[in-house]
Structures
1.
Amino acid sequence: MPDRILMPFLALIGLAMIAFSLVWPQGYGDRSPGPWGTVPIQRTPEMSARIQREKDAARLHEQQARDQVSDARAATAP
């Protein structure tokens, strides 16, 4: 590809990446700076409570699975 086409194309991609970095969230649940940022859904009280409930349910499920495995091992141990 000729440099006369490639270099402007790469410059355009670079400028687009810089523009996206100004408005895209800066990590999971973090706000973008300036006038473009909005409160992420993960930071709302309702979503935080829902996430915590899901974590607690997963922890309980994992503990129940471990208990079942330990009970099965105890029952089959000589």
2.
Amino acid sequence: MTVSAFENPLLSGLFGDAELADLLCAEAQVDRMIAVEAALARAQGRTGVIPVRAAQEISDALGLCSVAPADLTRGTASAGVPVPALVAALRGQIGGEAAHWLHWGATSQDIVDCATVLQLRDVLAVIEIRLSGVIDALQAASQQHAGQLMAARTRSQIATPITFGLRIARWAQPLIAIMGELPALRARLLRVQFGGASGANTAVAPHGAAISAALAEELGLADSPSWHGDRSAMIALSAWLGQIGAALGKLGRDLILMGRSEAGEALAGAGGGSSTMPQKANPVQAEAIVSLGGFLAAQQGAMVMAASPAEERDGALWGLEWLVLPNMLLATGAALRHAVDLAETLRARPENMAAMLDLGNGTVWAEALSFALMAHMPRAEAQACMKQAIAQARTTGTGLQQALAALPEVRRLSIDWAVWTSPETVAEPSRRMAQSVFADWRPDHEKT
């Protein structure tokens, strides 16, 4: 029986992520902990802390060892962490004198944190690929719709004409910034953890620093002082995931609004049906992204709380991290999975976009026409004329441009209204702005 929405067969298509689940599952965690124990033995053999022969025997044996997570359940419930039960099981499989040297001078948190970092390294690689895929697809769509006019909305109201290409670029803009933060996040996160019982490596003194450096090399991680009580890197990771959720949440919300029946300005994804209303195509994937973004935002407080452990090590708040972080990673993966599909299938409905521009009898052009007037009269007078023309357009159904041109104060002016309302005039600033959003976007495979 599965309760989690990330694994529940009824909901996993919306909120789950099979690829990331494979990297984060209990089996993967046990495998990584075994790999850390093997690397620790090799590091201690290299530094002369344990016999070289024992280190080699441990490394060779652990390469063949297998421990089922279910076999660690009782031990974890007893110790509050799976490592003691795991080490006992591994010693039984290694046998002989070499087993004596397994887990030498380490503490459970060293093993779990190193294993977690190895899992995070793999997960971040997947997230990076998907995030790049979303940005690439949005860039292509923005270029495709660079000249497609639509009505911008500010505070939910129709504002001025922009291009669909610019709106798409705005979806990509925070994602590009988020991608730019990834190298620094990796540098902060992918560090070795080796501090021993209280973080001072007392049991292996004076070799602690040498072991840590050798272990980091074995695992392909950066060397670091022990960080049992410093969970700031985990907060940085959760905040980064939250940023992805927020950015994708905007994309999802905008697509939901653009796809409303009365607007229908853009569509993406396959759409979902209704049990009783066959005319509907519900924005299921966009809705799922918004839900996942909300979930990610809600978890931030828990991760901040988990980052205030008491004294040198704290089992209670460490456990809170276990409860929250894996689900945040799964939620991020699922949101990106949906976003890639939506970005790649995004399609405009130009006729409906044009209809939205025509709502209000052309009042969407009020800003442009106001500036046209201000080129010929004082600002206050131009604003007064515009207010009068808008009122007339709304009352009589006359187009705003016609109502404005008919005013006595305006009729005498020689204004080429078409210059101010031509599609090219309006589209060009949006095109330049969209291009500037992507100016620094260079995926790794395109770098020289």
